[in-house]
Amino acid sequence: MYDLGPRFTETSVEPGANLLLRGPPLTGKRQLATEILAAGAATTEGTVVVSTRHSAERIRTDYRTLFDEPAIDTVGIVDAVTRHRGHAVEPDGYTKYVSSPRDLTELGVKFAEFVRSYYVEGRVERMCAFLDSLTTLLLYTTLQTVFRFTHVFASRVENADALGLYTIESTVHDGETLDALTKLFDGTITVDNAGTATLSGAAFDDRTVDL
């Protein structure tokens, strides 16, 4: 089972679960996901962040406030931002770069490489993956393409018995888009402007907490 961090105390989900964090911009979705990641890293879970919003450098800087020092250095990051901004960077053992958020094939390949290396090389026995965000992907390509990509991504999480977290800006997209993508997930965490987050899904009881 995977615990859902300090906000959702005594709440856990089955290995292979995929959760969508949805809500308006600037309501704390990314912070909540980071808290869940940090709690897992403190109990030896591996962490992979696939970012279409922030650079690997920015992510590691932000995460240092929540992650223990040894854990932050072993966070795997797929960065689709830095090269897109024109910076020349080289990958290392824990950072892989993609040319643009529109290159979904390469995003998937780099994520799969982390999954294989983490498990095959025995780095971790459990893993949490965070895709931030689906909204950015939808700016570059069609709903159908993002749906297919997310379906494959979520299947990799499920097959690895990992935990998958994903963010989307609910007020940016129409209801049809949100409904289509939500069907891919085992549950949702809905964050609102009032500062609350509600966990819901078929496999667990609804629960609302303050952020």
Please tag this protein with its features.
211 residues; Rossmann fold; two-stranded antiparallel ribbon; globular
Distance between the termini: 23 Å
Beta-strand segment tally: 11
Which H/E pattern describes the elements?
Answer: EEEHEHHEEHEHHEHEEE
Hey, roughly how much beta strand do the residues contain?
25-35%
Q: Choose one word for the global shape.
A: globular
Tell me, rounded to a whole number, the average pLDDT: 93
CATH architecture verdict: 3-Layer(aba) Sandwich
Please estimate the helix content: 25-40%
- Outline the low-pLDDT stretches: none
The profile of the biggest β sheet is:
9 strands, mixed
Spatial arrangement of strands, main beta sheet? 6-5-4-7-8-3-9-10-11
Brief overview:
With 211 residues, the chain is α/β, with parallel strands linked by helices. It has helices spanning 29-41, 56-63, 69-72, 104-120, 134-140, 143-159, 175-182, and strands spanning 2-4, 8-13, 18-23, 46-51, 76-79, 95-97, 127-132, 163-169, 187-191, 196-201, 204-210. The chain has a single domain (2-8, 16-210), classed as Rossmann fold (3-Layer(aba) Sandwich).
